[in-house]
Amino acid sequence: MRTVLRRPDFRLLFVGLLASMTAESILLLALAIWVKDLTGSDGLAGGTIFAVIAPMTLAPLVGWVVDRYPRRTFFVAANLVTAVLLTPLFTVRDATDVWLVYLVAALYGLSYITLSAALSGLIRQLVPVELLAEANGALQTVRQGLRLIGPLVGAALYAAIGGWALAGVGMVGFLTAAAVVSALPTPQSAPPIVRLRWPAELGAGLRHLAGEPVLRRALLGFGLGSLVMGFSESLIFAYVDLGLDRDATFVGVLVTVQGIGGLLGALCSPALVRRFGEVGTLAAGVALFGPAALALAYPDLRLGFVAVLLAGVSLPLRMVGLHTLIQRRTPPALVGRVAAATEAVVSGPSAVSIGTGALLVGFLDYRVLFALVGVATLAAGAYLWRGRRLGAAAGVRPPTPPTPPTLPAPRRPVEATDRHVISGTRRPPWR
């Protein structure tokens, strides 16, 4: 990762994202804890995460908009808008205001997919193809490292000051990111736009995903795993409440432990991409979630720490493998639409999963559901692993050296012996 961090432009982007990721790590889990305290419901707390993911259905439209504007300018504007979207949180007082938390969560989800699509294009613009895995790994290292302190800081701020502090910290983070990234020396020209009918432009990202066999398999396998992995967003509250008999804020401790695993996984992810390819790394990330979920089916704190640590390792492997694959296999003019379409294809099943989990946790034993998640993710990981060789074509190819221009052969004087060749006839070989 040191190689990509030596680049001044990526280093500046890295600093800006550090600010926004800090705000994000403090905000998201604390919103769910806030809803849990206001309503006392595990299902409604998990529903907060569902509200964040539900807007992913608008991904094709979002990606189309992102691809029509310069990457840096759009990314800065999206951060400024995100800061404004958090202001309704200052008015939340009691359980009757929970709808405001859901509204902000949904708007933030729309902003998240916008920022992700713009960021994918910006990274593709700033970083050479051979350094994409390192760039994504570096960003995931920061994101996962923040899990060590972000959830605890968010829970502490919420307990000490209240929910309005979460909105304040989030706004500062996104405003800082906008200010830093605006200083990037990136060309401001918009990506070339293929002039098609607007329905065709909206669907260009999905068509590209469907047309590439390696992308198709990666998204199918990841989507199958996401159909059940989202259960854990609600199940973890039941695990802490019913299994460990602890307060909902203890979820912040578990997420911090998960951050340790995420940090380890992010540090290892570029090496795994080089060794097993993007699809192999994605397969490992999905499969590792299986034993973690199986371990959480048994309510023991020591085993729970091991489980969330393993779940943490799996997350950056999935993200680095998938994002690097998308960036390498997509033309620059389509990166926004393909990245947004990927979020929709992956997050759509996840949103269904979170909503289903929030409902099922009220009727079925959370241990049975964790066991189901474990078996299903192991199967999805095995499906991806069998297709890892498809990703070989996605690896970094050494640049082809430029072919030197072919110079015409020097012309020599025409001799008498050449006349038959020039005229189209040949001398008999014996003459």
UniProtKB/TrEMBL annotation:
Which keywords does UniProt give here? Cell membrane, Membrane, Transmembrane, Transmembrane helix
Q: Show the stretches that span the lipid bilayer.
A: 12-35, 47-66, 73-92, 98-123, 144-161, 167-187, 218-242, 248-267, 279-298, 304-326, 338-360, 366-385
- Stored SUPFAM superfamilies: MFS general substrate transporter
Q: Which Pfam families does the UniProt entry name for this protein? A: MFS_1 (PF07690)
Q: Does the keyword Zinc apply?
A: no
Show where the Major facilitator superfamily (MFS) profile domain sits.
Answer: 1-190
Could you tell me which residues belong to the region Disordered?
A: 394-431
Compartments, record wording:
Cell membrane
The main location class comes to: membrane
Question: What membrane topology does the UniProt entry give?
Answer: Multi-pass membrane protein
Q: Where is the composition biased (Basic and acidic residues)?
A: 412-421
Biased composition regions of type Pro residues, renumbered to the chain: 398-411
- What is this protein identified as? MFS transporter
